[in-house]
C-alpha cells in the first residue's frame, strides 16, 4: 500500500519522507489556506521534496477553467497530479487532461457509481471519502469494498486512494480491502506506531536496564 500525506505543512512532510513513509502528497484549498502560504509556492516546495505524485486541486467549477487551471498547475513540476471534483464538469476536465497524458485525481467520491464514471474518464486516482460517510452514519469501508469489486471486475487501472482518513483503523481496514493508496494527516500516520503493550514492554525493559546498570555506550 502507498502512503500519501494529506497536508501542506513542509516540516511534517519532510519528517515522514525521511523515514520512507511518503509515496506522495495530497493538498486542497483548505490545507493550503491552513499553511498560510501561496498555493504555487508551497506546492512547488512540496514537489521538490517528494518524488511521488503531489495532488494540487483546481479552484474552478466549470470544465474549461478547470482544464486551464490544471495546465497551469502542471507547470509547477513533473510530479503534479491535477485534482478535480467528481462533478460532470470535473469528469470532462479529467478526460481532457488524462488524454493529454497527465495524472488526474478525482476527489469527493461518495458512491461506486461515481467511481465507475471516473475510471471511464481516465482518472489516475479516485478519492472516496471514508470519514465523511462515517459522519452521516454510512460505512465508508463498504464504499471501498464496492469500488474494489467493480474495478477488479473490469480491470480498471484507476487506483483507489482512500481519503478522509480519521483513524489508524481506517488505514488498516483500507489495507485489508485492497485500497491502492491511503492519504492521511501526519498525526494519523504517526499514530500507527502506538500500542499500549509496546509501551508496557518498554517500561519493563527500562526498569530492568536500570536495575542491572546495563550500559552500551
Automatic annotation (TrEMBL):
<keyword id="KW-0963">Cytoplasm</keyword>
<dbReference type="InterPro" id="IPR004731">
    <property type="entry name" value="Transaldolase_3B/F6P_aldolase"/>
</dbReference>
<dbReference type="InterPro" id="IPR022999">
    <property type="entry name" value="Transaldolase_3B"/>
</dbReference>
<protein>
    <recommendedName>
        <fullName>Probable transaldolase</fullName>
        <ecNumber>2.2.1.2</ecNumber>
    </recommendedName>
</protein>
<dbReference type="InterPro" id="IPR013785">
    <property type="entry name" value="Aldolase_TIM"/>
</dbReference>
<dbReference type="GO" id="GO:0005737">
    <property type="term" value="C:cytoplasm"/>
</dbReference>
<dbReference type="InterPro" id="IPR001585">
    <property type="entry name" value="TAL/FSA"/>
</dbReference>
<dbReference type="InterPro" id="IPR033919">
    <property type="entry name" value="TSA/FSA_arc/bac"/>
</dbReference>
<dbReference type="GO" id="GO:0005975">
    <property type="term" value="P:carbohydrate metabolic process"/>
</dbReference>
<feature type="active site" description="Schiff-base intermediate with substrate">
    <location>
        <position position="83"/>
    </location>
</feature>
<comment type="function">
    <text>Transaldolase is important for the balance of metabolites in the pentose-phosphate pathway.</text>
</comment>
<comment type="similarity">
    <text>Belongs to the transaldolase family. Type 3B subfamily.</text>
</comment>
<dbReference type="Pfam" id="PF00923">
    <property type="entry name" value="TAL_FSA"/>
</dbReference>
<keyword id="KW-0808">Transferase</keyword>
<dbReference type="InterPro" id="IPR018225">
    <property type="entry name" value="Transaldolase_AS"/>
</dbReference>
<keyword id="KW-0570">Pentose shunt</keyword>
<dbReference type="GO" id="GO:0016832">
    <property type="term" value="F:aldehyde-lyase activity"/>
</dbReference>
<comment type="pathway">
    <text>Carbohydrate degradation; pentose phosphate pathway; D-glyceraldehyde 3-phosphate and beta-D-fructose 6-phosphate from D-ribose 5-phosphate and D-xylulose 5-phosphate (non-oxidative stage): step 2/3.</text>
</comment>
<dbReference type="GO" id="GO:0042182">
    <property type="term" value="P:ketone catabolic process"/>
</dbReference>
<keyword id="KW-0704">Schiff base</keyword>
<dbReference type="GO" id="GO:0004801">
    <property type="term" value="F:transaldolase activity"/>
</dbReference>
<dbReference type="GO" id="GO:0006098">
    <property type="term" value="P:pentose-phosphate shunt"/>
</dbReference>
